[in-house]
Amino acid sequence: MARSTCAAAPICLLSGNRGFLARKSNLSGLCLLRPWLYISVARAYKNAMRSVLLAGLLVVGVSASAQEPVIKRSAPMTMTGEIVDISCYKSKGVAGGTGAAHVDCAKICILQKDAAVGILTDGDGLYRIWGAAAKDKYAKLQPFIGQAVEITGTEVILSNNYDLRSFDLQTVKRTGK
Question: For residue 152, which of 136, 171, 168 has the smallest C-alpha distance?
Fold first, then answer.
């Protein structure tokens, strides 16, 4: 193919909505249409805005799912028990996952592995601590790990957590046990 006869450039855009690139050929000055991949500026802008909108919705969706929606909330109640690291309690049992000997391991699991914290009650079993007390890696509860406490709050049933009961903690205090 010889040089183009077009003085401006060898490739020119045709007007219209078809989005074709036209390339000048040296055959008697005709423009030959080639259906190359061409996206107009308006379409490229629209696609970019769709991507930005999709990314924004994804971020909002992830942040909204950080706290599960509550299906049901009980009346306020008080429970006594021991604050434990749930993952260690489930894997090691009562002997290895509770008590003062396990406090350091539980704090490491909570701070480094984002383990959940719960209360092993005297009679009702294990509850995962949920809500405001769970913020900042359970900072409010870390001084109470491995100790007998009395907590007040409400039992909550969450939409995506049926294997473990959850408790929305309001207050916590040490007991004399």
Answer: 171
Task: Please provide the size of the chain in residues.
Answer: 177
- Contact predicate 117/129, CB 8 Å: yes
The number of C-alpha atoms within 13 Å of 106 and in the hemisphere containing its C-beta is: 30
SS3 of residue 85 by DSSP: strand
Q: Where are the alpha helices (DSSP H) in 20-134?
A: 41-64, 86-97, 103-113
148-158 vs 126-130, strand pairing mode? unpaired
Residue 140 neighbours by CB under 8 Å, 6+ apart: 133, 172
Burial class (CB in 10 A: 0-12, 13-18, 19+), 61: exposed
d(CA 170, CA 154): 8
Total-model pTM:
0.57
Span 69-122, pLDDT tens digits: 777 888 999 999 998 888 888 888 888 878 888 888 888 888 888 888 999 888
| CA–CA distances in Å: residue 172 to residues 18, 24, 71 | 69, 80, 24
Q: Which domains are assigned to the chain?
A: 11-64 (no CATH), 70-174 (2.40.50)
The residue type found at 15 is S
Spatial distance between the Cα atoms of 45 and 122, rounded to a whole number of angstroms: 62
